[in-house]
Amino acid sequence: MTSDTATQPPQPFTVAVDEELLSDLTARLERTRWPSPAPGAPWSQGTDLGYLREIVAYWAEKFDWRAQERKLNAFAHYRTRIEDTHIHFVHHRAAHGEGIPLILTHGWPSTFVELLPLVPLLTDPGAHGIEGPAFDVVIPSLPGYCFSSRPDRALTMRDTARLWHTLMRDLGYERYGVQGGDFGSGIGTFLALDQPSAVRGLHLSNIELSPYLGPGAPPLTKAERAYLAQEERWLEEEGGYNHVQSTKPQSLAYALTDSPTGLAAWVLEKWRAWSDSEGDLESRFTRDFLLTTLTLLWVTDSIAPSLRDYYDNRELYDSLTASDRVQVPTAIGLFGNEYIDDGTPPRSWAERLYTVNHWTVMPSGGHFAPTEEPHHLAHDLTRFFANL
What we know:
- By secondary structure, this protein is of the alpha/beta class.
- Helix content is 41%, strand content 16%.
- β2 and β3 (85-92) form a beta hairpin.
- The chain is globular and about 55 Å long.
């Protein structure tokens, strides 16, 4: 199916969760069947039991979803249909004058909420001490996440890139900027590869896709070999989730769809491990932010379709060829404590795939940069696009 066959114009959308869903959530949290604690240091075998008990009690007894819902609805939400997929997105135009159109994409295990701190900074940068152009900001929810549907077929990052291109054209943007991290980084890369005349600049907060390393590729440098060895060590220690979600996501989905406590354990462990939290999750994220993310995943039944991203994309990671090179001007804004301390790749690694004309390694922040360090990210975005 092509994007010309079934596109529904965007319609305003309000976040409104049925009270029955919230009551059921509370009841499930209160009936949690707890495992025995793991031996050894806290978090060494997964989410710490004591911390999770505390979070679940707060979620059931003190978390005010309606207050968070009102905050979410302070933003302008829309839904549209492109092909066979309903897409939810937030859309805010520049506060003054004509803004640079910019689409930003989150990854897993996240939601559009991670990106909301960027909206005021990018639509009105001068009011926040940021020099540079203002933006028209578009933040879609990935297919299957929150209020976006996911079709009953394989859907890759490249497929989502096609949906995003149609979305931006439907909003009247012929040329636009692209920013992303995690799956958003991969989607942005395929947008730049497949729609180079439409993408005026690509900004990535991590490198999701590996360059072509087959016959004819330049030999790896010492720094690149060290980076790949470090990445391999990380996968051995922390990559179990990836293997499960890339092979048997449905089996895991039953447990996470049935138990909000299980969902919290699975997701919060990643937010702690991948952020610049030094083991203290709530030093980087408020408890209400974390529970807003979890509640959105729960009430929209998002976890099962979100896991399918790993299964559907597993062959795409090895699909790039020697001729695949992003010609669009690219900025790489890395956050040094993503996944592992000092785990940033060398610039030469990025230059194998991208036309890099802006390179920044941030002093702090991790995998969830738009929430961890929104000002650093907004500054980097405005500097990059100001010079294009």
